[in-house]
């Protein structure tokens, strides 16, 4: 049987009666529906005594809490003052220790700093001397170049002496540029001009070699 059929059967059996939403709560009996509970009568003596006890209790409670708060605050103030004194003494002690350590390190570092300063000064002096020597060498080389240019001025070709230089060039002797060099690199032959006799001999040798090299036309066989 389904849930719907069970519900319909139950409602049909109950009829017009209403069901309770919470069956664990027992309904009030019909005979007690209109019974009203009357307040308990107050005894004046008992009420006066209770009021006095309540006021005494509140007074003692407030006094106890105030005493505890005062004790706690006094202890905290004493501890704070002690810590402050300790912190002040510790701070002074640390300042003195730091000052003493600074003085000791300053005294110990003087020799080391002097050594470093002397090394740096020496290195800088060496570098300055090397730069000075390099500049001097550069100036000497420039002066040599200038002096060489000054000495070469009379031999330079200009617009005024170009004709003279050309005449000297055309009238100059023959120079042998076929150098012969020994094992040490010295020129043994070819550094001087050829004399006229040598020129004539060389010319005759050249002509004879050319004639010897010419073929004989009559010796050719047809």
TrEMBL record:
Its main location: mitochondrion. It comes from the Eukaryota. GO terms for cellular component: mitochondrial small ribosomal subunit. Residues 194-204 have a biased composition (Basic and acidic residues). Keywords: Mitochondrion, Ribonucleoprotein, Ribosomal protein, Transit peptide. It is found in: Mitochondrion. The keyword Transmembrane does not apply. Residues 194-222 are annotated as: Disordered. Belongs to the mitochondrion-specific ribosomal protein mS26 family. This is Small ribosomal subunit protein mS26. It comes from Calicophoron daubneyi (Rumen fluke).
